[in-house]
Amino acid sequence: MMHPATRLGFVSEAQGFGVFATAVIPAGTLTWVRDEWDIVIPAVVPADLLGTVERYAYTEADGTVLMPWDHGRYVNHACKPNCAGLQAGIDLAVRDIQPGEQLTNDYSVLGTFEQFPCACGSPNCRKTVEPRAVDAELLGAFEAARALMATVPQPLGERAVRWLEAERPQARKSSPGRTPRVMSGRLNLR
Fold first, then answer.
1. Which one of 30, 38, 138, 175 is most buried, counting C-beta atoms within 10 A?
2. Distance between CA atoms of 100 and 20, rounded to whole angstroms?
3. Is residue 143 within 8 Å of residue 76, measured between CB atoms?
4. Measured between alpha carbons, how far is 187 from 43 in angstroms, rounded to an integer?
């Protein structure tokens, strides 16, 4: 579930839609929390749904392939993101996010996929989004944000506690280092 102080908005023809803050979201705030409405993607996806899954699903830190049910699926990539999801089930603001600013994640650390050109516009844009390990800067920002969690308002806090304490649903997991492939008209996440 996305933070309540966000809205869906059009970004550009190249990027489509994105998620924007409607109020200040302080560093350390949960910006997204997995909930029971999010869709766990099975190992085999029907061909007619493949495009949607490839565009909006991602692999969580625990290997679960997931597609958020709400506008969380529209969080775009940035090489210097303001959010990070380095722990399964949650994303945190890694710096203060201002009203009107787009919420972003670094897709490079969100699972396996084929590389694609980057259009994030960050001053340090890598020009290509491809799977890679979490860099020290993003990991440090995430750890610093996690340390702030108890000091800032958490509109999604109760939901996060329920998710993190609940028994995790069993899901097909993709293997690290393997890219989803189309086989016989279906997405194979083995």
1. 30
2. 6
3. no
4. 7
Q: 147-151: list long-range contacts, CB under 8 Å, 24+ apart.
A: 147/28, 148/26, 148/27, 148/28, 149/28, 149/29, 149/30, 149/92, 151/28
DSSP 46-88: -GGGHHHHHHH-EE-TTSBEEE-SSGGGGPEE-SS-SEEEEET
Cβ neighbour number for residue 154 with a 10 Å cutoff: 17
Which architecture, in CATH terms, is 6-165?
Beta Complex (2.170)
Give the largest CA-CA distance in the chain. Answer: 51
pLDDT, tens only, 118-160:
888 888 899 998 888 788 999 999 999 999 998 999 999 877 6
HEC string of 96-163 equals CECCCCECEECHHHCCCCCCEECCCCCCCCCCEECCCCCCHHHHHHHHHHHHHHHHCCCCCHHHHHHH
Phi, psi dihedrals of residue 40, rounded to the nearest 5° = -85, 120
